[in-house]
């Protein structure tokens, strides 16, 4: 881990155009070598895009690994680059939708696209923006994650393992929250909601936190742009009639919105995660 971080640090001095090419090449290598993760990606794509041929899904998986490789190396700019270089790396669109909610607590819904950290750290460079993270098994990985997401001094990170109370308190204090609720965290506090027509264990935290804090949800999606163009983080209009009072309906609402964004850039969703590992009773794992 430390060797890998040292390489990312050394490479972050490269011009973005060259760094992007090196990252894409790294992704191609990872596709060839990371057999277990490649199988996870292909299993996810088989579930979500059954209309595609096997070869088309393999091509999409290769694009995903290249995009992931780019984002992995470009994290070096987020973690160690100047604020000016972070600004140059990530453009921001749709701030008016956030500003329109200035009179209420705001949750920025940030699904797991590969540019997730790019959007969060870019916004945190200019605005107070708290977030949540999962403690890592590696101390080095944990330290760099915390450093990267808090380095501009305007972010408090809450460990997911500590529950939602600290998040609700921060929202009620007027501190916006960058929330990442679209991973399979097991059956606890989850409902099965369709994602690409497949039942997916979906935590109900977004609607529960929004209800308890009286918060409005503003979706926030980060897209990786071609070549040396970097990334763009786009904020969408705040959701109306959310939460609805029905956690299952709210989970379906969230998943449907994320699915629409995934279809716009399918190579950029975080397919490396076992999104469907928790199954309804009696249903086999697609990753077996």
Structure characterization notes:
The protein starts with a helix and ends in a 24-residue tail after the last helix. A seven-stranded mixed β-sheet has the order 1-9-8-2-5-3-4, sandwiched between helices. The protein has helices at 2-11, 16-33, 35-48, 54-80, 83-89, 95-99, 116-124, 139-150, 165-172, 205-213, 247-264, and strands spanning 90-93, 106-109, 130-133, 157-159, 177-179, 190-195, 198-203, 216-224, 231-235. Helix 8 links the parallel strand 3 (130-133) and strand 4. 37% of the residues are buried. It is of the alpha/beta class. It has one domain: 3-Layer(aba) Sandwich (Glycerol-3-phosphate (1)-acyltransferase), CATH 3.40.1130. The radius of gyration is 18 Å and the shape is globular. It is built from eleven helices and nine strands. Helix 1 (2-11) packs across helix 4 and helix 2 (16-33) packs across helix 4 (54-80).
Secondary structure tally, helices: 11
Measured by DSSP, the beta-strand proportion falls in 15-25%
The major β-sheet equals: 7 strands, mixed
Helix content: 40-55%
- Tell me the count of domains: 1
Report the end-to-end length measured between terminal Cα atoms. Answer: 28 Å
Order of helices and strands: HHHHHEHEHEHEHEEEHEEH
Short description:
The chain is an alpha/beta fold and 288 residues long. Helix content is 48%, strand content 15%.
Offer a few descriptive terms:
288 residues, alpha/beta, Glycerol-3-phosphate (1)-acyltransferase
Helix/strand layout:
Layout: H1 2-11, H2 16-33, H3 35-48, H4 54-80, H5 83-89, E1 90-93, H6 95-99, E2 106-109, H7 116-124, E3 130-133, H8 139-150, E4 157-159, H9 165-172, E5 177-179, E6 190-195, E7 198-203, H10 205-213, E8 216-224, E9 231-235, H11 247-264
Parallel strand pairs: 1-9, 2-5, 2-8, 3-4, 3-5
Antiparallel strand pairs: 6-7, 8-9
Helix pairs in contact: 1-4, 2-4, 3-4, 9-10
